[in-house]
């Protein structure tokens, strides 16, 4: 590449991300447009998932078995029941697929889930901020310009070509948005006493009904 082409390629890479669907269970869609043709390179997005959102490793394993994704989760052991305040951040490496009508365009989606947050005072929503992903390329032909791409360590193999050791590279890109915000419904602290009272009464009522049914139709062993 000549210098002018290199600079155009470095400045031309863009990445966008969207959260599809509603509620606690979403699909994270990542789209990348490179400044130049990938030329047979493997393209991936590496994104940090904050504690408020996670990928279910069991769901991911099912999608991998069905060849619906090659995404890699780091670490691959996740407590899916943990609330946001006791969870840890994750790293998702999401291989992207080329779009049919655009040789420089790539996309992929993966299911993500919001975690429960602490009750808030005065607000019924908590914000989870998703930073813009890092764009990665893995090219076995070695034609990447050093001015645009730097070697990086990635905890996943490169699938650009089989049985050929390849190096992942990273570039600085121009995100369409600096960050993506997921609004998660939360309870209000002002309602804590009411929620505790209703929960206690419901528990006592259900236990009484079970005990009454047991006494009426059977014996307690």
Automatic annotation (TrEMBL):
One of its GO terms (cellular component) is endoplasmic reticulum membrane. Pathway: Glycolipid biosynthesis; glycosylphosphatidylinositol-anchor biosynthesis. One of its GO terms (biological process) is GPI anchor biosynthetic process. Keywords: Endoplasmic reticulum, Glycoprotein, GPI-anchor biosynthesis, Membrane, Transmembrane, Transmembrane helix. It is a single-pass membrane protein. It is found in: Endoplasmic reticulum membrane. InterPro entries: PIG-X/PBN1 (IPR013233), PIGX (IPR040039). It comes from the Eukaryota. Belongs to the PIGX family. Stabilizing subunit of the glycosylphosphatidylinositol-mannosyltransferase I complex which catalyzes the transfer of the first mannose, via an alpha-1,4 bond from a dolichol-phosphate-mannose (Dol-P-Man) to the glucosaminyl acyl phosphatidylinositol (GlcN-(acyl)PI) intermediate to generate alpha-D-Man-(1->4)-alpha-D-GlcN-(1->6)-(1-radyl,2-acyl-sn-glycero-3-phospho)-2-acyl-inositol and participates in the sixth step of the glycosylphosphatidylinositol-anchor biosynthesis. Probably acts by stabilizing the mannosyltransferase PIGM. This is Phosphatidylinositol-glycan biosynthesis class X protein.
